[in-house]
Specification:
heterodimer; A: 716 residues; alpha+beta; 7-stranded mixed β-sheet; 6-stranded mixed β-sheet; 18 helices; B: 169 residues; 5-stranded mixed β-sheet; 5 helices; 30% helix; 18% strand; globular
């Protein structure tokens, strides 16, 4: 059975680091000099080898290698060092829960040190829903290793067996003798560095006391009092404010520039380096003014616009296509020949923006040839590498620190603001802070790709899918494969030359691929006059997928409810990054063809739940962001300019856009916990599309579905 | 950018002459500030007074991250000229806590824990405080209407509504 079938995490091209990862060596003496004496459990294979006195292999740590360590200080403080970062997914809280659970300490005694390249081991970045399954699993083992080591230390001094002892609230106790010693007393004067014990016994989810529960958000109070310092809030003594002169369009070349007026301004630093022009001043107002008096002449070129993007992408394929570019099974032509019904459709997906509410920001400081940059990024080590390359200095001289940031959604992999701030700070010889404006964030960051997806299928009268041909142009490879039982398939991803910079997104290409697939599946069910849910259940063997489908349908009242006039129901399902999701939507289409999403019911399963409320927030947030992309979000552009680069022009979901949302969370304590920030988004667009079809007979094929809120197409 | 064509200019001339001096009443404290005519209140709060709880999100009053109370009414400080706030009572997120005690609305948000990245939190809490001052038992529709100027891009709107309902109790 497929109950525990492992679906490979297909990394998208944007999830793979541009280069093989770093070398990382842990020097024991240096390590304890930094963190203080005590007990530490580290997990990086190379470190472990070097600890054992064996030569470490020369090859770099693999890209998917996660590193971290847990340190128990002489005062009993538990510090966790990880390269993962907090972007709002509340991973700081859930990783703390996992460590607290295994060490049997209170949540408050855990100090998470995250995303600081000067303090934490290398980590490729916080993306791909990997923090929970990979970092969480490793930290769980590391904490359990530490716990067992502490028990052994206590057992030695009490001349008893470790198995007879227990960890309890930061102490090791002997329940029979009532002996008790604190972690701090055990680690005092020690410099004990242990490798992770792979076979260590960890607490089963069914026995969790701290993990698996809704606990208060770590540092919650600092966020609701406005005290948390995001990078855009930070200040250093003598700091200047930076601004960058932006070209009027993509690919614009600087022809001529007059800097004299800006140079003549009080306390203004002006930097020109090739086409890079930036200013820094004591206050933002002066920096703005300096920018305004710079007269630059740019040469621009004709570039594709929104109206021609889909034909452009089809015409400009670049070949290649990553790991899972082409999947072929059986014979699609034969499958089509045997089909009773055939269905062919082309789906179009527009570029959309992440719109993190905190735009890119960086604060850079140079001192003694070393560069420190505070910036909001999902890849502190990636930004460290970018800075090292741009400024031609070794990575050891670059420290990137990532304070918990104002969200990312896959949109903050890159280090543009960090580079710009560092360039200005280098010349100003003072710290420089640069905060992008909303327009800059809309224009100079990157987008979820636009794409064209062609699907043709063959179906037999008994409900068997006999052929599945799926060609994706430029949307990306995540979620490309079908979850259905189809003997003849031909699936391919064709990257194209993109006029707009594109990159990662929440759920990546799944938002496009699952839309096309699940829209098509519902169309096929209609051709057979079969229920959308029944058709899906008939064609899948995956029990986890069936479980979410049935849970969503039951909570929604798929079979029992009588639909009011003008209403339609839609359903979709899929899996991504280890999370399984099924979404039901009810949509109203009124006589004016206005479309309103009435309710969404979503069932989600990602193994054992670590924090129920924070999981609910992840799912709800995904549904809401998914609604934006489903209904109205789209980037409009022409000739290298973004035409709707503001929050008044680019519509994102608001309070008033909320349908009724019902979330069903399936807690599978028997399965390892997976990430939850991505899979929950993928079902929304197809479920809404399928509900519009059910209500109106119109099978929409373009995302966003109803940018003006009104159904313009007629039933086919 | 490490090419040879680097040109750097340091210039120091006379101080800026074009400043307006004003007194703002912020969180019950009179603050003397200088700003150019037309400077928005958010810039004054964040850059002059280091009150960074109010956030920049859009610069056009479209997202609510910069929301403050001016004479009890919610106002997006990024499009409010600082001079317009002279003689009025300005409350920012930093002014809600009294003697280390959270405002009841903050207490409710801490308990309900609806935020993810929390960048919108200050603005949402300020809008909620304004709403509940005028209407201690708002209906769902009244909450949605009052809060529609605030964007939470993490999208946990319905749990934010729950927090407001909890605060209303």
């Amino acid at each position: 059975m497929m109950e525990n079938a492992k679906h490979t995490f297909d990394p998208d091209q944007y999830e793979l680091p541009p280069k093989p990862a770093h070398k990382f060596r842990l020097n024991r003496r240096k390590f304890f000099a930094v963190v203080g004496s005590g007990l530490a459990v580290a997990f990086i294979c190379k470190d472990v080898l070097s600890l054992a006195g064996e030569p470490a292999p020369q090859s770099a740590v693999p890209a998917n290698q996660v590193g971290a360590w847990i340190h128990i200080g002489e005062d009993g403080t538990v510090s966790v060092y990880t390269g993962k970062v907090e972007v709002g997914q509340n991973i700081r809280t859930s990783l703390s829960q996992i460590v607290a659970e295994e060490l049997h300490v209170s949540l408050q005694s855990i100090n998470m040190i995250m995303g600081d390249t000067g303090l934490v081991p290398y980590d490729a970045g916080t993306f791909g829903s990997r923090s929970t399954p990979q970092m969480g699993t490793q930290l769980r083992k590391a904490a359990a290793t530490a716990r067992e080591a502490l028990k052994e230390m206590a057992a030695k001094s009490w001349k008893t067996k470790p198995d007879l002892l227990q960890a309890d609230q930061g102490n090791i106790i002997d329940p029979r003798t009532r002996n008790k010693i604190s972690f701090g007393d055990l680690t005092k004067g020690q410099q004990l560095l242990l490798p992770i014990a792979e076979e260590v016994k960890v607490t089963p989810a069914a026995d969790w006391l701290i993990a698996g529960k809704t606990v208060p958000k770590i540092n919650g109070r600092s966020f609701i009092t406005g005290k948390h310092k995001y990078v855009s809030d930070m200040k250093l003594p003598g700091m200047l404010y930076g601004k960058i002169l932006r070209p009027p369009a993509y690919e614009a070349k600087l022809v001529d520039v007059d800097l004299t007026k800006a140079q003549a301004m009080t306390g203004v630093v002006v930097v020109r380096d090739g086409d890079f022009i930036g200013v820094a001043a004591r206050d933002l107002r002066t920096a703005d003014k300096a920018l305004q008096v710079i007269h630059a002449k740019w040469e621009t070129t004709r570039q594709p616009s929104t109206s021609e993007i889909f034909s452009y992408l089809l015409k400009n394929t670049t070949g290649g296509g990553g790991r899972n570019a082409n999947n072929e099974k059986g014979n699609v032509e034969e499958g089509q020949a045997f089909a009773d019904f055939k269905h062919t459709k082309t789906y179009h997906i527009h570029y959309i923006a992440h719109v993190p509410l905190e735009p890119r920001a960086a604060l850079a400081q140079w001192a003694e040839g070393k560069l420190t940059v505070w910036t909001g990024t999902q890849r502190p080590f990636g930004v460290q590498e970018e800075l090292s390359e741009v400024f031609n200095i070794s990575k050891e001289k670059v420290r990137v620190i990532m304070p918990d940031t104002g969200s990312a959604y896959g949109g903050k992999h890159s280090g543009e603001a960090a580079i710009e701030a560092a360039r200005l700070a280098q010349e100003a010889k003072k710290p420089v802070k640069l905060v992008w404006t909303r327009k800059e964030e809309f224009t100079w960051a990157y987008f979820r790709p636009a794409g064209v997806i062609e699907v043709s299928s063959g179906i037999k009268k008994d409900g068997t899918i006999s052929a599945w041909k799926f060609n994706n142009y430029n949307s990306g490879a995540s979620g490309l494969n079908t979850q259905y039982r189809i003997s003849n398939q031909q699936i391919a991803y064709h990257p194209s030359d993109t006029p707009l910079k594109q990159g990662s997104y929440r759920g990546l290409a799944s938002t496009a691929n699952v839309f096309a697939r699940e829209a098509h599946i519902t169309d096929m069910a209609r051709l057979l006059k079969m229920d959308q849910l029944e058709f899906r259940l008939l064609n899948t063997d995956d029990l986890r997928l069936k479980a979410v489908l049935e849970a969503a349908a039951n909570a929604f009242g798929w079979n029992g409810n009588k639909k009011p006039a003008g209403r339609g129901y839609g359903i979709s399902c899929g899996y991504e990054k280890g999370g399984y999701v099924a979404t039901c939507a009810e949509v109203a289409v009124n006589s004016d063809k206005a479309v309103k999403v009435v309710r969404i019911t979503q069932a989600f399963e990602c193994g054992a739940i670590v924090h129920p409320l924070h999981l609910e927030n992840q799912i709800m947030g995904s549904i809401v962001q998914g609604l934006g992309g489903a209904l109205f979000e789209a980037i409009d552009f022409a000739d290298g300019k973004i035409l709707n680069a503001s929050l008044s022009a680019y519509r994102v979901p608001r309070f008033g856009d909320m349908p009724k949302i019902d979330i069903v969370m399936l807690d599978r304590k028997d399965l390892p916990s997976a990430g939850a920030g991505e899979a929950a988004i993928i079902g929304v667009a197809p479920a809404v599309r399928n509900a519009i079809l059910d209500a109106s007979g119109v099978g929409l094929t373009t995302l966003p579905l109803v940018p003006d809120g009104v159904l313009s197409q007629r039933p086919a | 950018m490490t090419g040879k064509s680097v040109i750097v200019y340091f210039v120091n001339l006379l101080p800026d002459q074009n400043l307006t001096f004003m007194t703002l009443n912020i969180n019950g404290v009179k603050q003397e500030v200088s700003a150019e005519p037309g400077t928005d209140l958010l810039s004054v709060l964040r850059n002059e007074l280091d009150l960074t709880g109010s956030k920049y999100g859009c610069g056009e009053g479209a997202c609510g991250a910069c929301m403050v109370l001016i004479n009890g009414k919610p106002a997006p400080s990024c499009i409010t000229p600082a001079t317009d706030a002279v003689g009025k009572e300005i409350i920012t997120i930093e002014g809600l806590e009294k003697n280390g005690n959270l405002h009841p609305v903050q207490e409710a948000f801490l308990k309900a824990d609806p935020f993810q990245c929390s960048y919108c939190a200050s603005g949402i809490i300020m809008s909620s405080v304004a709403l509940l001052r005028n209407n201690s038992t708002p209906s769902e529709n009244e909450i949605i209407t009052a809060m529609n100027r605030n964007i939470c891009r993490c999208g946990t709107y319905l749990n934010i509504v729950k927090a407001i309902r909890l605060a209303a109790k």
